[in-house]
């Protein structure tokens, strides 16, 4: 009788504790920020670094999406180099809105190759939110 009781208890505990532990181990915190001003990248990078330290192993993906007329400023590759280096250090992927590039007649070839261009920055933001990303717009 004792063996049956302990075997049953072991099975029940394994059923109810393993999924919880698996979720805790694999859960990552992902972030996305939508901005229309390049200078805002600096505080975005600082925020990403602080969250990475706070989250530890749970820190996942961090993306900064640039939309609007400011995409014209991305063509200054020398000025952008500092932001690119800071983005890499902070583990932030900088994404550029393709619709903004078209609207303001900026050729994607004229922006640094380290920046990812997506067809629609707003849509990309919503798609990330649907995947559970925490989001803010500046």
Automatic annotation (TrEMBL):
Which Pfam families does its entry note? DsrE
Coiled-coil regions listed in the entry: none
- The answer on whether this UniProt entry bears the keyword Methyltransferase reads no
Q: Which organism is it from?
A: Gillisia lutea
Q: Which domain of life is it from?
A: Bacteria
Q: What is this protein called?
A: DsrE family protein
> Key word Signal present in the record?
yes
N-terminal signal peptide: 1-22
Keyword field: Signal
InterPro entries from the UniProt entry: DsrEFH-like, Sulphur_relay_DsrE/F-like
């Amino acid at each position: 009788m004792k063996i049956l009781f302990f075997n049953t208890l072991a099975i029940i505990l394994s059923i109810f504790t393993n999924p919880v532990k698996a979720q805790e181990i694999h859960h990552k915190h992902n972030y996305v920020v939508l901005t229309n001003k390049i200078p805002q990248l600096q505080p975005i990078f600082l925020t990403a670094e602080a969250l990475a330290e706070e989250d530890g192993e749970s820190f996942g993906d961090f993306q900064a999406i640039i939309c609007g007329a400011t995409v014209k400023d991305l063509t200054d590759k020398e000025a952008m180099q500092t932001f690119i280096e800071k983005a890499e250090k902070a583990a932030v992927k900088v994404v550029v809105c393709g619709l903004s590039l078209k609207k303001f007649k900026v050729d994607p070839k004229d922006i640094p190759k380290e920046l990812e261009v997506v067809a629609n920055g707003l849509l990309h933001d919503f798609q990330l939110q649907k995947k559970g990303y925490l989001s803010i717009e500046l």
